[in-house]
Amino acid sequence: MSKSAKSATKAKRVGVRAYDSHVFVCSGSVCKKRGAKDVRKALKSEVKEAGLRREVRIDSVGCLGLCKHGPNAIVYPSGTWYLGLKERDVPEVVEGHLLGGEPVARLAADFR
Amino acid sequence: MSKSAKSATKAKRVGVRAYDSHVFVCSGSVCKKRGAKDVRKALKSEVKEAGLRREVRIDSVGCLGLCKHGPNAIVYPSGTWYLGLKERDVPEVVEGHLLGGEPVARLAADFR
Fold first, then answer.
1. ipTM of this model?
2. pTM
3. Inter-residue long-range contacts of A46-53, CB under 8 Å, 24+ positions, other chains counted
4. pLDDT by residue (tens digit) across B27-86?
5. Residues A19-53: tens digit of each pLDDT
6. B18 and A79: CB-CB below 8 Å?
7. What is the domain-level CATH number for residue B64?
8. Under an 8 A CB cutoff, do A60 and B62 touch?
């Protein structure tokens, strides 16, 4: 078996969890200054409180650009960009989007 | 207008690009040691070469776990986890998945 086929076989044996939502909170320096850490902390806490710890994964992502609008975050698989996501907006995102399954139109950025 | 409504209005005026694919390459310390930087570099270069620079976004993500299988990466919106993604596998992912639209079954992890 080739080295490459071996590594693929190994990968396939490792099961990954199928999350309902995967949230990426920008950890760029500007977003950090604008409160991204508090937003992430609030997300983690609200997600836990909503009983979604196994359904929702929250990670930090490198600079997403659009720095001056931060703190920014993206939720997949919907591909929703939340720009200027404040700590106070987090419960609405958790309830409406992560629990309810619908991006929060009031907070979601439009696509060009 | 409330402060919160103002910030939402501002976010909505900023257009974000609708990418076909968004790749998150793990930048955790173990994945880094296992070559994640080279994988990311190869991805950027191959994506550019394939003329997909506007269609595909590549970012770094904080530790995704499953460290011993790294370098790891996820591609959205399909939510495909590639574990143990080697530099030599990158052309196949770019051609098959990012250009062709189909996750590369040989390299994609199964879901539990």
1. 0.90
2. 0.90
3. A46/A90, A46/A91, A46/A94, A47/A94, A47/A98, A50/A94, A50/A95, A50/A98, A50/A99, A52/A20, A52/A94, A52/A98, A52/A99
4. 999 999 999 999 999 999 999 999 999 999 999 999 999 999 999 999 999 999 999 999
5. 999 999 999 999 999 999 999 999 999 999 999 99
6. yes
7. 3.40.30.10
8. yes
Residue B106 domain-assigned (yes or no): no
Look at B109 and A66 and tell me if their CB atoms are within 8 Å.
no
What is the distance in angstroms between the CA of the first residue and the CA of the last residue of chain B? Answer: 47
Residue pairs spanning A and B at CB distance below 8 A: 126
Chosen for mutation from B16, B39, B90 (greatest number of chain A CBs closer than 10 Å) is: B16
Domain span including residue A27 = 19-99
The residues near A106 (Cβ < 8 Å, ≥ 6 apart) are: A92, B5, B8
B-contacting residues of A 47-76, CB under 8 Å?
59-62, 64, 66, 69, 74, 76
Q: Per the structure, how many domains does chain A have?
A: 1
Chain A CB within 8 Å of residue B1 CB: no
User: Looking at the domain assignment, is residue B31 inside a domain?
Assistant: yes
B85 located within any domain: yes
Let me know if residue A104 belongs to a domain.
no
